[in-house]
Amino acid sequence: MAKDHGSSIKNDEQYEELRKKGLSKEKAARIANTPDSGKKGGKAKPYEERTKDDLMKQAQKIDIEGRSKMNKIELITALRNH
């Protein structure tokens, strides 16, 4: 049974698994608190197939700093590493 991490973590079990995989507390919490966390997806296009505008919107959603000066490849890298 997953440890209760308080009301700030919505999916404790997923949070613990992500932490075991080496994700930071911030990133694990962000993923575990996503409304659809833990559900299978796989319907989104790979970053390389998206437009720069789409990538910019995604970067804005997760507040990546310096995104306005990034090219498409830099946006993809920043999104994958955030």
Briefly, what is this?
This protein has 82 residues and is mainly alpha-helical. The chain has helices at residues 12-20, 25-32, 52-61, 72-81. The protein is elongated, with a radius of gyration of 15 Å.
Notes on the protein architecture:
By secondary structure, the protein is an all-alpha fold. The protein has four helices and no strands. The chain has helices at 12-20, 25-32, 52-61, 72-81. Helix 1 (12-20) runs antiparallel to helix 2 and helix 3 packs parallel to helix 4. The radius of gyration is 15 Å and the shape is elongated.
Shape: elongated
Task: Specify the helix fraction band.
Answer: 40-55%
The overall strand count is 0
End-to-end span in angstroms?
28 Å
Q: What's the gyration radius in Å?
A: 15 Å
Number of helices in the DSSP assignment: 4
The low-confidence parts are none
Q: What portion of residues belong to β-strands? A: under 5%
The main β sheet shows up as: none
Task: Chart the SSEs and their pairings.
Elements: H1 12-20, H2 25-32, H3 52-61, H4 72-81
Question: What are the main properties of this structure?
Answer:
82 residues; mainly alpha; 45% helix; elongated
